Automatic annotation (TrEMBL), chains A, B:
<dbReference type="InterPro" id="IPR008949">
    <property type="entry name" value="Isoprenoid_synthase_dom_sf"/>
</dbReference>
<dbReference type="Pfam" id="PF00348">
    <property type="entry name" value="polyprenyl_synt"/>
</dbReference>
<comment type="similarity">
    <text>Belongs to the FPP/GGPP synthase family.</text>
</comment>
<keyword id="KW-0808">Transferase</keyword>
<dbReference type="InterPro" id="IPR053378">
    <property type="entry name" value="Prenyl_diphosphate_synthase"/>
</dbReference>
<dbReference type="InterPro" id="IPR033749">
    <property type="entry name" value="Polyprenyl_synt_CS"/>
</dbReference>
<dbReference type="GO" id="GO:0005737">
    <property type="term" value="C:cytoplasm"/>
</dbReference>
<dbReference type="GO" id="GO:0004659">
    <property type="term" value="F:prenyltransferase activity"/>
</dbReference>
<protein>
    <submittedName>
        <fullName>Polyprenyl synthetase</fullName>
    </submittedName>
</protein>
<dbReference type="GO" id="GO:0046872">
    <property type="term" value="F:metal ion binding"/>
</dbReference>
<dbReference type="InterPro" id="IPR000092">
    <property type="entry name" value="Polyprenyl_synt"/>
</dbReference>
<keyword id="KW-0414">Isoprene biosynthesis</keyword>
<keyword id="KW-0460">Magnesium</keyword>
<dbReference type="GO" id="GO:0016114">
    <property type="term" value="P:terpenoid biosynthetic process"/>
</dbReference>
<keyword id="KW-0479">Metal-binding</keyword>
Protein backbone atom coordinates (compact mmCIF):
# COMPACT_ATOMS: atom_id res chain seq x y z
CA UNK A 1 0.00 0.00 0.00
CA UNK A 2 1.33 3.37 -0.97
CA UNK A 3 0.19 6.51 0.78
CA UNK A 4 -1.59 9.32 -1.05
CA UNK A 5 1.50 11.53 -0.71
CA UNK A 6 3.59 8.88 -2.45
CA UNK A 7 0.93 8.48 -5.14
CA UNK A 8 0.77 12.24 -5.69
CA UNK A 9 4.56 12.51 -5.91
CA UNK A 10 4.72 9.69 -8.45
CA UNK A 11 1.93 11.17 -10.57
CA UNK A 12 3.51 14.64 -10.45
CA UNK A 13 6.87 13.14 -11.48
CA UNK A 14 5.26 11.57 -14.57
CA UNK A 15 3.98 15.00 -15.54
CA UNK A 16 7.33 16.68 -14.76
CA UNK A 17 9.07 14.27 -17.10
CA UNK A 18 6.73 15.19 -19.94
CA UNK A 19 6.92 18.93 -19.16
CA UNK A 20 10.73 18.83 -19.26
CA UNK A 21 10.68 17.85 -22.95
CA UNK A 22 7.45 19.27 -24.30
CA UNK A 23 8.96 22.52 -25.60
CA UNK A 24 12.03 20.94 -27.22
CA UNK A 25 12.49 21.18 -30.98
CA UNK A 26 9.90 23.93 -31.41
CA UNK A 27 12.31 26.66 -32.55
CA UNK A 28 11.68 28.92 -29.57
CA UNK A 29 14.17 31.84 -29.23
CA UNK A 30 16.50 31.13 -26.25
CA UNK A 31 15.50 33.91 -23.89
CA UNK A 32 11.79 33.36 -24.45
CA UNK A 33 12.30 29.64 -23.88
CA UNK A 34 14.16 30.41 -20.66
CA UNK A 35 11.26 32.53 -19.42
CA UNK A 36 8.73 29.81 -20.30
CA UNK A 37 10.82 27.13 -18.56
CA UNK A 38 11.34 29.31 -15.49
CA UNK A 39 7.64 29.27 -14.67
CA UNK A 40 6.97 25.79 -16.00
CA UNK A 41 9.64 24.30 -13.73
CA UNK A 42 8.58 26.15 -10.60
CA UNK A 43 6.96 23.01 -9.28
CA UNK A 44 3.50 22.59 -7.85
CA UNK A 45 1.24 19.59 -7.49
CA UNK A 46 0.41 19.40 -11.23
CA UNK A 47 -3.17 18.83 -10.09
CA UNK A 48 -4.85 19.39 -13.47
CA UNK A 49 -2.76 16.93 -15.51
CA UNK A 50 -2.88 14.42 -12.67
CA UNK A 51 -6.70 14.60 -12.67
CA UNK A 52 -6.85 14.30 -16.45
CA UNK A 53 -4.62 11.21 -16.48
CA UNK A 54 -6.51 9.59 -13.60
CA UNK A 55 -9.85 9.99 -15.38
CA UNK A 56 -8.37 8.71 -18.63
CA UNK A 57 -7.22 5.60 -16.77
CA UNK A 58 -10.43 5.32 -14.76
CA UNK A 59 -12.42 5.20 -18.00
CA UNK A 60 -10.18 2.55 -19.55
CA UNK A 61 -8.06 4.83 -21.74
CA UNK A 62 -4.33 4.81 -22.51
CA UNK A 63 -2.81 7.23 -19.99
CA UNK A 64 0.49 7.61 -21.82
CA UNK A 65 -1.30 8.52 -25.04
CA UNK A 66 -3.32 11.09 -23.06
CA UNK A 67 -0.20 12.74 -21.58
CA UNK A 68 0.16 15.59 -24.15
CA UNK A 69 -3.46 16.57 -23.48
CA UNK A 70 -3.05 16.28 -19.72
CA UNK A 71 0.19 18.27 -19.83
CA UNK A 72 -1.47 20.99 -21.92
CA UNK A 73 -3.56 21.84 -18.84
CA UNK A 74 -0.37 22.62 -16.92
CA UNK A 75 0.91 24.85 -19.75
CA UNK A 76 -2.37 26.77 -19.61
CA UNK A 77 -2.36 26.95 -15.80
CA UNK A 78 1.25 28.21 -15.84
CA UNK A 79 0.53 30.91 -18.43
CA UNK A 80 -2.41 32.12 -16.34
CA UNK A 81 -0.17 32.52 -13.28
CA UNK A 82 2.39 34.55 -15.29
CA UNK A 83 -0.25 36.93 -16.66
CA UNK A 84 -2.12 37.19 -13.32
CA UNK A 85 1.11 38.29 -11.60
CA UNK A 86 1.76 41.17 -14.06
CA UNK A 87 1.84 44.71 -12.63
CA UNK A 88 -1.34 45.62 -14.55
CA UNK A 89 -3.13 42.62 -13.00
CA UNK A 90 -2.52 41.38 -9.43
CA UNK A 91 1.01 42.88 -9.34
CA UNK A 92 2.60 39.99 -7.44
CA UNK A 93 6.39 40.00 -7.00
CA UNK A 94 6.49 36.43 -5.70
CA UNK A 95 5.08 33.13 -6.93
CA UNK A 96 5.72 29.92 -4.99
CA UNK A 97 8.41 31.73 -3.03
CA UNK A 98 10.37 32.78 -6.12
CA UNK A 99 10.39 36.13 -7.99
CA UNK A 100 7.50 36.17 -10.44
CA UNK A 101 8.24 35.87 -14.16
CA UNK A 102 8.15 39.58 -15.00
CA UNK A 103 10.46 40.41 -12.09
CA UNK A 104 13.12 38.17 -13.66
CA UNK A 105 12.54 38.62 -17.40
CA UNK A 106 10.69 41.94 -17.65
CA UNK A 107 7.07 42.58 -18.52
CA UNK A 108 7.31 42.19 -22.28
CA UNK A 109 8.96 38.78 -22.11
CA UNK A 110 6.55 37.67 -19.37
CA UNK A 111 3.56 38.58 -21.53
CA UNK A 112 5.08 36.69 -24.47
CA UNK A 113 6.05 33.70 -22.30
CA UNK A 114 2.41 33.49 -21.23
CA UNK A 115 1.15 33.86 -24.80
CA UNK A 116 3.63 31.20 -25.89
CA UNK A 117 2.65 28.68 -23.20
CA UNK A 118 -1.04 29.22 -23.96
CA UNK A 119 -0.52 28.62 -27.67
CA UNK A 120 1.89 25.69 -27.35
CA UNK A 121 -0.68 23.96 -25.13
CA UNK A 122 -2.86 23.52 -28.20
CA UNK A 123 0.08 22.39 -30.35
CA UNK A 124 0.89 19.69 -27.77
CA UNK A 125 -2.71 18.62 -27.47
CA UNK A 126 -3.12 18.30 -31.24
CA UNK A 127 -0.09 15.99 -31.30
CA UNK A 128 -2.03 13.44 -29.21
CA UNK A 129 -3.67 12.42 -32.52
CA UNK A 130 -3.56 9.90 -34.11
CA UNK A 131 -2.51 7.81 -31.04
CA UNK A 132 -5.89 8.96 -29.72
CA UNK A 133 -8.69 9.15 -32.33
CA UNK A 134 -8.91 12.66 -33.83
CA UNK A 135 -12.58 13.09 -32.93
CA UNK A 136 -11.76 12.71 -29.24
CA UNK A 137 -8.76 15.05 -29.50
CA UNK A 138 -10.82 17.79 -31.18
CA UNK A 139 -13.47 17.49 -28.46
CA UNK A 140 -10.78 17.67 -25.74
CA UNK A 141 -9.26 20.75 -27.42
CA UNK A 142 -12.69 22.36 -27.57
CA UNK A 143 -13.27 21.67 -23.86
CA UNK A 144 -9.86 23.11 -22.95
CA UNK A 145 -10.39 26.24 -25.07
CA UNK A 146 -13.88 26.90 -23.69
CA UNK A 147 -12.68 26.34 -20.10
CA UNK A 148 -9.59 28.54 -20.49
CA UNK A 149 -11.24 31.21 -22.63
CA UNK A 150 -13.16 34.42 -22.14
CA UNK A 151 -16.25 32.61 -20.80
CA UNK A 152 -14.05 30.55 -18.46
CA UNK A 153 -10.68 31.24 -16.83
CA UNK A 154 -9.92 34.51 -18.62
CA UNK A 155 -13.42 35.83 -17.93
CA UNK A 156 -13.07 34.76 -14.29
CA UNK A 157 -9.88 36.78 -13.93
CA UNK A 158 -11.69 39.78 -15.43
CA UNK A 159 -14.50 39.40 -12.87
CA UNK A 160 -12.01 38.81 -10.03
CA UNK A 161 -10.40 42.18 -10.73
CA UNK A 162 -13.80 43.87 -11.07
CA UNK A 163 -14.94 42.39 -7.73
CA UNK A 164 -11.75 43.27 -5.82
CA UNK A 165 -12.66 46.08 -3.45
CA UNK A 166 -16.22 46.29 -4.83
CA UNK A 167 -18.99 46.66 -2.21
CA UNK A 168 -21.78 44.42 -3.53
CA UNK A 169 -20.12 41.02 -4.02
CA UNK A 170 -22.43 38.26 -2.81
CA UNK A 171 -21.60 34.60 -2.16
CA UNK A 172 -23.36 33.70 -5.43
CA UNK A 173 -21.23 36.14 -7.42
CA UNK A 174 -18.06 34.92 -5.72
CA UNK A 175 -18.90 31.29 -6.42
CA UNK A 176 -19.76 32.02 -10.07
CA UNK A 177 -16.48 33.93 -10.51
CA UNK A 178 -14.42 31.11 -9.01
CA UNK A 179 -16.29 28.53 -11.10
CA UNK A 180 -14.88 30.41 -14.10
CA UNK A 181 -11.45 31.44 -12.81
CA UNK A 182 -10.27 28.20 -11.19
CA UNK A 183 -13.19 25.78 -11.54
CA UNK A 184 -13.47 25.61 -15.31
CA UNK A 185 -9.95 24.31 -15.92
CA UNK A 186 -10.18 21.67 -13.17
CA UNK A 187 -13.58 20.57 -14.48
CA UNK A 188 -12.28 20.39 -18.05
CA UNK A 189 -9.19 18.40 -16.98
CA UNK A 190 -11.43 15.71 -15.48
CA UNK A 191 -13.88 15.70 -18.39
CA UNK A 192 -11.06 15.61 -20.98
CA UNK A 193 -9.63 12.50 -19.35
CA UNK A 194 -12.98 10.77 -19.83
CA UNK A 195 -13.36 12.10 -23.39
CA UNK A 196 -9.89 10.92 -24.41
CA UNK A 197 -10.71 7.45 -23.09
CA UNK A 198 -13.91 7.37 -25.15
CA UNK A 199 -16.14 7.24 -22.06
CA UNK A 200 -19.92 7.04 -22.48
CA UNK A 201 -22.14 10.04 -21.62
CA UNK A 202 -22.80 8.93 -18.03
CA UNK A 203 -19.13 8.48 -17.15
CA UNK A 204 -18.24 11.70 -18.90
CA UNK A 205 -20.88 13.58 -16.88
CA UNK A 206 -19.59 12.00 -13.65
CA UNK A 207 -16.02 13.09 -14.45
CA UNK A 208 -17.27 16.59 -15.21
CA UNK A 209 -19.32 16.81 -11.98
CA UNK A 210 -16.42 15.48 -9.93
CA UNK A 211 -14.29 18.27 -11.40
CA UNK A 212 -16.93 20.91 -10.67
CA UNK A 213 -17.23 19.91 -7.00
CA UNK A 214 -13.51 19.34 -6.41
CA UNK A 215 -12.72 22.64 -8.13
CA UNK A 216 -15.16 24.50 -5.90
CA UNK A 217 -13.82 22.80 -2.76
CA UNK A 218 -10.24 23.50 -3.85
CA UNK A 219 -10.98 27.24 -4.07
CA UNK A 220 -12.81 27.39 -0.74
CA UNK A 221 -9.89 25.58 0.93
CA UNK A 222 -7.47 27.98 -0.75
CA UNK A 223 -9.39 30.90 0.74
CA UNK A 224 -9.38 29.23 4.18
CA UNK A 225 -5.63 28.58 3.98
CA UNK A 226 -5.06 32.24 3.16
CA UNK A 227 -6.41 32.94 6.67
CA UNK A 228 -5.15 30.02 8.76
CA UNK A 229 -2.43 28.44 6.58
CA UNK A 230 1.30 28.09 6.93
CA UNK A 231 3.16 30.66 4.80
CA UNK A 232 5.70 28.06 3.68
CA UNK A 233 3.07 25.60 2.55
CA UNK A 234 0.88 28.05 0.64
CA UNK A 235 3.87 29.90 -0.91
CA UNK A 236 2.58 33.40 -0.20
CA UNK A 237 2.11 35.58 2.87
CA UNK A 238 -0.90 34.64 5.03
CA UNK A 239 -3.66 37.25 4.73
CA UNK A 240 -2.69 38.44 1.25
CA UNK A 241 -6.26 38.10 -0.07
CA UNK A 242 -7.56 40.45 2.61
CA UNK A 243 -4.70 42.88 2.04
CA UNK A 244 -5.58 43.07 -1.67
CA UNK A 245 -9.25 43.74 -0.88
CA UNK A 246 -10.31 40.38 -2.32
CA UNK A 247 -13.58 38.89 -1.18
CA UNK A 248 -13.20 35.29 0.00
CA UNK A 249 -15.42 32.56 1.39
CA UNK A 250 -14.19 33.22 4.97
CA UNK A 251 -14.73 36.98 4.58
CA UNK A 252 -18.32 36.40 3.41
CA UNK A 253 -19.49 33.43 5.55
CA UNK A 254 -16.73 32.82 8.13
CA UNK A 255 -14.22 30.00 8.54
CA UNK A 256 -16.55 27.33 9.95
CA UNK A 257 -19.20 27.75 7.28
CA UNK A 258 -16.47 27.79 4.60
CA UNK A 259 -15.12 24.48 5.88
CA UNK A 260 -18.66 23.05 5.95
CA UNK A 261 -19.24 24.13 2.34
CA UNK A 262 -15.96 22.57 1.23
CA UNK A 263 -16.93 19.33 2.99
CA UNK A 264 -20.29 19.33 1.25
CA UNK A 265 -18.60 19.73 -2.15
CA UNK A 266 -16.20 16.87 -1.49
CA UNK A 267 -19.10 14.65 -0.40
CA UNK A 268 -20.85 15.42 -3.70
CA UNK A 269 -17.65 14.69 -5.64
CA UNK A 270 -17.27 11.33 -3.88
CA UNK A 271 -20.90 10.49 -4.56
CA UNK A 272 -20.36 10.94 -8.31
CA UNK A 273 -17.42 8.48 -8.17
CA UNK A 274 -19.54 5.75 -6.56
CA UNK A 275 -19.90 3.64 -9.73
CA UNK A 276 -16.14 3.38 -10.26
CA UNK A 277 -13.81 0.76 -8.76
CA UNK A 278 -10.10 -0.06 -8.84
CA UNK A 279 -6.85 1.80 -8.06
CA UNK A 280 -7.65 4.92 -10.13
CA UNK A 281 -11.00 5.31 -8.34
CA UNK A 282 -9.30 4.88 -4.96
CA UNK A 283 -6.65 7.44 -5.89
CA UNK A 284 -9.28 10.00 -6.91
CA UNK A 285 -11.27 9.40 -3.70
CA UNK A 286 -8.15 9.86 -1.59
CA UNK A 287 -7.23 12.98 -3.53
CA UNK A 288 -10.67 14.49 -2.95
CA UNK A 289 -10.50 13.79 0.79
CA UNK A 290 -6.96 15.20 0.98
CA UNK A 291 -8.09 18.53 -0.50
CA UNK A 292 -10.55 18.85 2.37
CA UNK A 293 -8.07 17.79 5.06
CA UNK A 294 -5.77 20.69 4.17
CA UNK A 295 -8.39 23.12 5.47
CA UNK A 296 -8.69 21.53 8.92
CA UNK B 1 -16.01 40.64 -64.50
CA UNK B 2 -15.50 41.96 -61.00
CA UNK B 3 -12.38 43.89 -60.07
CA UNK B 4 -9.98 42.65 -57.37
CA UNK B 5 -11.13 45.45 -55.06
CA UNK B 6 -14.71 44.25 -55.38
CA UNK B 7 -13.62 40.66 -54.81
CA UNK B 8 -11.62 41.63 -51.74
CA UNK B 9 -14.52 43.64 -50.31
CA UNK B 10 -16.93 40.73 -50.84
CA UNK B 11 -14.53 38.23 -49.23
CA UNK B 12 -13.84 40.53 -46.28
CA UNK B 13 -17.61 41.01 -45.81
CA UNK B 14 -18.10 37.23 -45.56
CA UNK B 15 -15.51 37.15 -42.80
CA UNK B 16 -17.01 40.20 -41.05
CA UNK B 17 -20.37 38.46 -40.94
CA UNK B 18 -18.85 35.45 -39.20
CA UNK B 19 -16.75 37.61 -36.84
CA UNK B 20 -19.84 39.55 -35.74
CA UNK B 21 -21.41 36.42 -34.27
CA UNK B 22 -18.48 34.21 -33.33
CA UNK B 23 -18.27 35.33 -29.69
CA UNK B 24 -22.02 35.16 -29.01
CA UNK B 25 -23.34 32.72 -26.43
CA UNK B 26 -19.93 32.08 -24.87
CA UNK B 27 -20.68 33.59 -21.45
CA UNK B 28 -18.09 36.35 -21.75
CA UNK B 29 -18.38 39.10 -19.06
CA UNK B 30 -19.74 42.30 -20.71
CA UNK B 31 -16.75 44.60 -20.36
CA UNK B 32 -14.29 41.96 -21.51
CA UNK B 33 -16.55 41.20 -24.47
CA UNK B 34 -16.66 44.91 -25.30
CA UNK B 35 -12.86 45.08 -25.31
CA UNK B 36 -12.60 41.99 -27.53
CA UNK B 37 -15.21 43.37 -29.96
CA UNK B 38 -13.53 46.78 -30.04
CA UNK B 39 -10.40 45.38 -31.66
CA UNK B 40 -12.16 42.67 -33.63
CA UNK B 41 -14.41 45.22 -35.33
CA UNK B 42 -11.65 47.70 -36.15
CA UNK B 43 -11.71 46.56 -39.77
CA UNK B 44 -8.79 45.59 -41.94
CA UNK B 45 -8.53 43.45 -45.03
CA UNK B 46 -9.06 40.14 -43.16
CA UNK B 47 -6.22 38.82 -45.31
CA UNK B 48 -5.56 35.63 -43.34
CA UNK B 49 -9.14 34.27 -43.32
CA UNK B 50 -9.58 35.34 -46.96
CA UNK B 51 -6.47 33.33 -47.93
CA UNK B 52 -7.62 30.33 -45.90
CA UNK B 53 -11.06 30.31 -47.54
CA UNK B 54 -9.60 30.78 -51.02
CA UNK B 55 -7.26 27.80 -50.62
CA UNK B 56 -10.08 25.69 -49.18
CA UNK B 57 -12.14 26.49 -52.28
CA UNK B 58 -9.18 26.12 -54.63
CA UNK B 59 -8.61 22.59 -53.34
CA UNK B 60 -12.25 21.63 -53.71
CA UNK B 61 -13.34 22.03 -50.10
CA UNK B 62 -16.51 23.47 -48.57
CA UNK B 63 -15.66 27.12 -47.85
CA UNK B 64 -18.60 27.70 -45.52
CA UNK B 65 -17.61 24.69 -43.40
CA UNK B 66 -14.05 26.07 -43.27
CA UNK B 67 -15.19 29.50 -42.04
CA UNK B 68 -14.67 28.91 -38.27
CA UNK B 69 -11.10 27.83 -38.99
CA UNK B 70 -10.49 30.73 -41.35
CA UNK B 71 -12.00 33.18 -38.87
CA UNK B 72 -9.82 31.80 -36.07
CA UNK B 73 -6.82 33.28 -37.90
CA UNK B 74 -8.34 36.75 -37.56
CA UNK B 75 -8.97 36.23 -33.83
CA UNK B 76 -5.30 35.30 -33.43
CA UNK B 77 -4.10 38.20 -35.59
CA UNK B 78 -6.28 40.62 -33.58
CA UNK B 79 -5.00 39.36 -30.22
CA UNK B 80 -1.42 39.81 -31.44
CA UNK B 81 -2.07 43.45 -32.33
CA UNK B 82 -3.57 44.13 -28.87
CA UNK B 83 -0.60 42.60 -27.05
CA UNK B 84 1.97 44.18 -29.40
CA UNK B 85 0.52 47.65 -28.68
CA UNK B 86 0.86 47.29 -24.87
CA UNK B 87 3.14 49.79 -23.08
CA UNK B 88 5.58 47.00 -22.16
CA UNK B 89 5.82 46.00 -25.84
CA UNK B 90 5.70 48.50 -28.73
CA UNK B 91 3.74 51.07 -26.65
CA UNK B 92 1.47 52.20 -29.50
CA UNK B 93 -1.37 54.58 -28.66
CA UNK B 94 -3.01 54.23 -32.06
CA UNK B 95 -4.05 51.26 -34.18
CA UNK B 96 -5.71 51.78 -37.53
CA UNK B 97 -6.29 55.41 -36.59
CA UNK B 98 -8.18 54.59 -33.39
CA UNK B 99 -6.93 54.52 -29.79
CA UNK B 100 -5.34 51.14 -29.11
CA UNK B 101 -7.15 48.66 -26.87
CA UNK B 102 -5.32 49.44 -23.64
CA UNK B 103 -5.84 53.20 -24.11
CA UNK B 104 -9.61 52.57 -24.05
CA UNK B 105 -9.99 49.66 -21.63
CA UNK B 106 -6.81 49.76 -19.54
CA UNK B 107 -3.86 47.41 -19.60
CA UNK B 108 -5.35 44.60 -17.54
CA UNK B 109 -8.44 44.28 -19.71
CA UNK B 110 -6.35 44.58 -22.88
CA UNK B 111 -4.12 41.70 -21.76
CA UNK B 112 -7.20 39.61 -20.96
CA UNK B 113 -8.96 40.58 -24.21
CA UNK B 114 -5.90 39.30 -26.07
CA UNK B 115 -5.74 36.11 -24.00
CA UNK B 116 -9.46 35.62 -24.61
CA UNK B 117 -9.27 36.09 -28.38
CA UNK B 118 -6.30 33.74 -28.59
CA UNK B 119 -8.10 31.03 -26.65
CA UNK B 120 -11.50 31.43 -28.33
CA UNK B 121 -9.77 31.00 -31.70
CA UNK B 122 -9.18 27.37 -30.80
CA UNK B 123 -12.72 26.93 -29.50
CA UNK B 124 -14.08 28.24 -32.81
CA UNK B 125 -11.74 26.07 -34.83
CA UNK B 126 -12.69 22.92 -32.90
CA UNK B 127 -16.34 23.63 -33.72
CA UNK B 128 -15.60 23.12 -37.44
CA UNK B 129 -15.80 19.38 -36.68
CA UNK B 130 -17.73 17.28 -37.56
CA UNK B 131 -18.80 19.29 -40.66
CA UNK B 132 -15.13 18.90 -41.59
CA UNK B 133 -13.56 15.51 -40.68
CA UNK B 134 -11.94 15.64 -37.23
CA UNK B 135 -8.54 14.50 -38.51
CA UNK B 136 -8.33 17.54 -40.78
CA UNK B 137 -9.50 19.88 -38.03
CA UNK B 138 -6.87 18.59 -35.57
CA UNK B 139 -4.16 19.05 -38.19
CA UNK B 140 -5.39 22.60 -38.91
CA UNK B 141 -5.40 23.40 -35.18
CA UNK B 142 -1.87 22.05 -34.89
CA UNK B 143 -0.72 24.22 -37.81
CA UNK B 144 -2.35 27.30 -36.30
CA UNK B 145 -0.85 26.66 -32.84
CA UNK B 146 2.65 26.06 -34.21
CA UNK B 147 2.46 29.16 -36.43
CA UNK B 148 1.10 31.40 -33.68
CA UNK B 149 3.22 29.96 -30.88
CA UNK B 150 6.64 30.53 -29.34
CA UNK B 151 8.47 29.15 -32.38
CA UNK B 152 6.29 31.28 -34.67
CA UNK B 153 4.50 34.59 -34.20
CA UNK B 154 5.14 34.96 -30.45
CA UNK B 155 8.83 34.09 -30.91
CA UNK B 156 9.02 36.57 -33.79
CA UNK B 157 7.69 39.36 -31.59
CA UNK B 158 10.31 38.43 -28.97
CA UNK B 159 13.08 38.67 -31.61
CA UNK B 160 11.62 41.89 -33.04
CA UNK B 161 11.96 43.56 -29.66
CA UNK B 162 15.46 42.14 -29.17
CA UNK B 163 16.52 43.41 -32.61
CA UNK B 164 15.04 46.90 -32.20
CA UNK B 165 17.97 49.28 -31.80
CA UNK B 166 20.49 46.40 -31.84
CA UNK B 167 23.63 46.98 -33.95
CA UNK B 168 24.24 43.60 -35.62
CA UNK B 169 20.95 42.83 -37.37
CA UNK B 170 21.61 41.36 -40.82
CA UNK B 171 19.18 40.87 -43.69
CA UNK B 172 19.13 37.13 -42.90
CA UNK B 173 18.19 37.77 -39.27
CA UNK B 174 15.53 40.27 -40.28
CA UNK B 175 14.01 37.87 -42.81
CA UNK B 176 14.01 34.98 -40.30
CA UNK B 177 12.36 37.18 -37.67
CA UNK B 178 9.64 38.31 -40.08
CA UNK B 179 9.11 34.73 -41.27
CA UNK B 180 8.14 34.02 -37.66
CA UNK B 181 6.37 37.24 -36.69
CA UNK B 182 4.15 37.81 -39.72
CA UNK B 183 5.03 35.02 -42.17
CA UNK B 184 4.08 32.00 -40.09
CA UNK B 185 0.42 32.95 -39.68
CA UNK B 186 -0.05 33.83 -43.37
CA UNK B 187 1.66 30.59 -44.38
CA UNK B 188 -0.50 28.56 -41.98
CA UNK B 189 -3.70 30.27 -43.21
CA UNK B 190 -2.95 29.10 -46.77
CA UNK B 191 -1.88 25.61 -45.72
CA UNK B 192 -4.89 25.19 -43.41
CA UNK B 193 -7.24 25.95 -46.29
CA UNK B 194 -5.68 23.10 -48.27
CA UNK B 195 -5.69 20.76 -45.24
CA UNK B 196 -9.37 21.44 -44.48
CA UNK B 197 -10.22 20.61 -48.10
CA UNK B 198 -8.34 17.31 -47.84
CA UNK B 199 -5.75 18.34 -50.46
CA UNK B 200 -3.01 15.90 -51.42
CA UNK B 201 0.61 16.51 -50.37
CA UNK B 202 1.59 18.38 -53.55
CA UNK B 203 -1.30 20.85 -53.36
CA UNK B 204 -0.77 21.29 -49.65
CA UNK B 205 2.92 22.10 -50.23
CA UNK B 206 1.98 24.57 -52.97
CA UNK B 207 -0.47 26.34 -50.64
CA UNK B 208 2.19 26.48 -47.95
CA UNK B 209 4.87 27.84 -50.31
CA UNK B 210 2.47 30.43 -51.73
CA UNK B 211 1.87 31.58 -48.14
CA UNK B 212 5.59 31.72 -47.38
CA UNK B 213 6.36 33.89 -50.42
CA UNK B 214 3.29 36.12 -50.14
CA UNK B 215 3.94 36.57 -46.41
CA UNK B 216 7.54 37.63 -47.07
CA UNK B 217 6.47 40.03 -49.85
CA UNK B 218 3.72 41.43 -47.65
CA UNK B 219 6.25 42.33 -44.94
CA UNK B 220 8.74 43.88 -47.37
CA UNK B 221 5.95 45.99 -48.87
CA UNK B 222 4.84 46.99 -45.38
CA UNK B 223 8.37 48.21 -44.67
CA UNK B 224 8.46 50.10 -47.97
CA UNK B 225 5.10 51.74 -47.27
CA UNK B 226 6.39 52.87 -43.88
CA UNK B 227 8.85 55.03 -45.86
CA UNK B 228 6.89 56.10 -48.94
CA UNK B 229 3.26 55.35 -48.01
CA UNK B 230 0.22 57.51 -47.40
CA UNK B 231 -0.49 57.93 -43.68
CA UNK B 232 -4.23 57.47 -44.21
CA UNK B 233 -3.82 54.24 -46.10
CA UNK B 234 -1.31 52.59 -43.76
CA UNK B 235 -3.11 53.79 -40.60
CA UNK B 236 0.00 54.99 -38.79
CA UNK B 237 2.45 57.87 -39.16
CA UNK B 238 4.95 57.49 -42.02
CA UNK B 239 8.46 56.76 -40.71
CA UNK B 240 7.33 55.19 -37.43
CA UNK B 241 9.58 52.14 -37.92
CA UNK B 242 12.65 54.34 -38.14
CA UNK B 243 11.54 56.43 -35.19
CA UNK B 244 11.27 53.26 -33.07
CA UNK B 245 14.74 52.12 -34.11
CA UNK B 246 13.35 49.16 -36.06
CA UNK B 247 15.46 47.64 -38.78
CA UNK B 248 13.56 47.31 -42.05
CA UNK B 249 14.21 46.06 -45.55
CA UNK B 250 14.65 49.64 -46.88
CA UNK B 251 17.01 50.52 -44.00
CA UNK B 252 19.18 47.48 -44.77
CA UNK B 253 19.10 47.26 -48.59
CA UNK B 254 17.36 50.44 -49.81
CA UNK B 255 13.97 51.02 -51.44
CA UNK B 256 14.76 49.75 -54.94
CA UNK B 257 16.30 46.48 -53.79
CA UNK B 258 13.39 46.00 -51.36
CA UNK B 259 10.91 46.38 -54.20
CA UNK B 260 12.93 43.96 -56.32
CA UNK B 261 12.94 41.38 -53.51
CA UNK B 262 9.19 41.72 -53.06
CA UNK B 263 8.71 41.23 -56.80
CA UNK B 264 10.86 38.11 -56.73
CA UNK B 265 8.77 36.67 -53.90
CA UNK B 266 5.50 37.35 -55.70
CA UNK B 267 6.90 35.70 -58.85
CA UNK B 268 7.73 32.59 -56.81
CA UNK B 269 4.26 32.62 -55.24
CA UNK B 270 2.64 32.82 -58.69
CA UNK B 271 4.84 30.01 -59.96
CA UNK B 272 3.58 27.70 -57.21
CA UNK B 273 -0.02 28.45 -58.27
CA UNK B 274 0.61 27.42 -61.88
CA UNK B 275 -1.16 24.04 -61.63
CA UNK B 276 -4.42 25.61 -60.44
CA UNK B 277 -7.24 26.95 -62.61
CA UNK B 278 -10.62 28.56 -62.07
CA UNK B 279 -11.96 31.64 -60.26
CA UNK B 280 -10.23 30.90 -56.93
CA UNK B 281 -6.86 30.56 -58.66
CA UNK B 282 -7.45 33.83 -60.55
CA UNK B 283 -8.43 35.58 -57.31
CA UNK B 284 -5.25 34.41 -55.55
CA UNK B 285 -3.09 35.45 -58.51
CA UNK B 286 -4.68 38.91 -58.54
CA UNK B 287 -4.28 39.19 -54.79
CA UNK B 288 -0.57 38.34 -55.00
CA UNK B 289 -0.01 40.93 -57.73
CA UNK B 290 -1.97 43.54 -55.77
CA UNK B 291 0.29 43.15 -52.74
CA UNK B 292 3.24 44.07 -54.94
CA UNK B 293 1.49 46.99 -56.62
CA UNK B 294 1.00 48.71 -53.29
CA UNK B 295 4.76 49.22 -53.02
CA UNK B 296 5.14 50.99 -56.36
Amino acid sequence: MTTLKEDLAREAARVEFWLAGCLDGRGIPPRLREAMDYSLRAGGKRLRPVLCLAFAGLCGGDEEAAMPCAGAFELIHTYSLIHDDLPAMDDDDLRRGKPSNHKVFGEATAILAGDGLLTEAFACMAEAAPAIPAGRVVEAMRLLAVAAGAGGMVGGQDLDMAYTGAPDVTLEKLAAMHAMKTGALIRAACECGAVLAGADDDRRARARDFGIHVGAAFQIVDDVLDVVGDEKEIGKPVGSDQEMGKHTYPSLVGLDESRRMAGERIAMALDRLSVFEGPRADFLRNLARYILERAQ
